[in-house]
Amino acid sequence: MTIRRIASYSVIALLVASGVWVRLATTGFWGQRQGSGEISAVSGDGVAISEKQRRQTEAKQGLHGKGSIERSEKQILFGDLHVHTTYSFDAYNTSLPMYQGEGSHPPGDACDFARYCSGLDFWSINDHAEGLTQTQWSQTREMVRQCNAAAGDPANPDMVTFLGWEWTQIGDTPQDHYGHKNIVLRDTAEGDVPIRPISSREQLFPGGTDPYGLMMRLLLIAGATDSDSRQRYFDFVRFLQDRDELQPCEQNRPVRELPDNCQESAPTPTELFAKLDDWAYPYLTIPHGNTWGFYTPPRSSWDKQLAAHTDPEKHEPLIEVFSGHGNIEAYRPWRAVAIDAADNRVCPEPTADFLPECWRAGEIIRERCIAAGESEQECERRAVGTRANFILTKDSGHWTVPGSTVEDWLDAGQCRDCYMPAYNHRPTNSLQYGLAIRDFTDETLPPKRFRWGIIGSSDVHTARAGTGYKEVMRRKMTDSALGMLGPPAFLVEREPSPDFITLEETGGLYGPYFERFASFFGTGGLVAVHAQGRDRQAIWNALERKEVYATSGDRILLWFDLVDGQHDLRYPMGSSVSYERTPEFEVSAVGAFEQKPGCPPDSLRALAKDRLQRLCGGECYHPGDRRKRIERVEVVRIRPQIQAGEAVGSLIEDPWRVLACPPDEEGCTVYFSDPEFAQSRRDAVYYVRAVEAASPTVNGDNLRCERDESGQCITVQPCRANAPTEYSDDCLADVEERAWSSPIFVDYDAPQ
Asked: Are the CB atoms for 466 and 116 separated by under 8 Å?
């Protein structure tokens, strides 16, 4: 055999070996699957439960009001019904070395964190159904049962764990966008829960056939700097491969006739509700993040979803108003994109309280154009073209302004006067807009409307349920790592250009402005329930009757009742009441406990030192003896539409009343009534906000604008996520933590 032939065979063998290695590497051969994690808890702590109840009773007794507050036997319990682990793709992604990630945080971590770090009374796991495999769903179910088994007496557990998932839908246009919804199940036993979660879509490339995905997997592995990080990428590839191998279920068949191991999907809420009803297990569907311009197309609104609903009160009884991704409460009259008389999409001009992103894009190009020495006429032409080009995109317009920085955009697209708003707030998808509209399509039936109860939760992606107990450790306690997603810098760096480019000319770059989004991540909110016990059914009953409220993370105590003195009746938050007289209301609120540093003894005993540090960062829910002061109670009144097309802005009064509280720590009880109710002869919705004195809060000021005398943003100091050194800055700003009650729905009942 000649040397040449030997060399040829060697090259062929090397190529074959390389091909085999690439194939094995990109299909997860060397990767290990995540387990569900270990649970450290071994038993419920009856002493801790008694102490919680004692302190709450003392708070009630300290209030100045009389009546239901003192008579009520219900206790207020705090929870988080929106928790992701690294069984979710985005959570696993940001756990990797390229994002300075902490590594895997499986479901078992969430159980320990909720019990020993945040000290919650209840929580729910909600990983994205779009990537959950049958094995992961089975492991999740088992972990939930183990977490509950460690809670002590089922009639008086230290914590209740609910099973659930997230239905994560994103559309490119307002017409096909529905948003995200959490599914929470009452029961946990096998045979009492769906054997498959329901996703919003099928896998795009079943069987791992996505060529782009295979290339990216290879780049990840090849770019690993050491054996440990390379193994983490091998494990991630195994995770991706398992997702890609999911096989879609056959459509249009009853859910119980489908195979256990197929991926069940429902592309619209109507189909989702039909499948959940087909399973016939008790469930709650909770929409969230509806105003997030991070992925929501401009001009998306609740109208479409309400029109498609068959039973909105049954299928969506609750809504998440606040999370670690911002606040979706407020309606505002401005829009990111306007519609002109010819029904064309156009860029609206800025106003005193809103700077559209499309407009700012034009101004960036105009400023560059003038600096380049072009004429004012030419620069105006380019600015106009830039604005028109920008609104052709959904969430990718920043790519069409080459070389722009986060600072260039100032506070464009953001709600300037909202409390901790969601990024690029979409006001027609807000809580207030949804409460104000009705659907009059079917004239043979009463108009449909939403009657939501209001909750908060975290939407955390590191298995840390209930992160808002302390405003510390931005890297651990918020989802700021998600701000590091997106293409590598070397792919997107461009020289600033004095003219725009189209999305097609960006070289395939599209998607949200992750780095800018990082300034809108805070610690999470909470859901509070008025429950007649600590057990699962008592909590579920409170959720179903909507006797619930949201907080921005602080454990504020809040009661809100309609007081019917004529019949000696009280109707708590969440109630729907037919009324013909002047409604009268009572509100009581007590501030959250100020926190002591470190962790309480039960946490120190239960968790090993290294686990306590990794999960909690050495800081747990650790209440002291002093409470924060309640500054005021704000009342919001909404009078829902009585005819199609009625302008929504005039129906929302926020705030309608502002009621001051005394300057002490004993809480606050206030009263108000609405003499206009009977005179107007129309339904009304009332909810309240209990507002604490300002305190330092992670990302409380979002982009940290410096404003001129007219209130316009002239420079920003964004809270970055793209470098390890940035995490030493918790981006604290003084803001007023708060609680939002569920509404009381007062329907006008004309006297006979």
From this structure: no
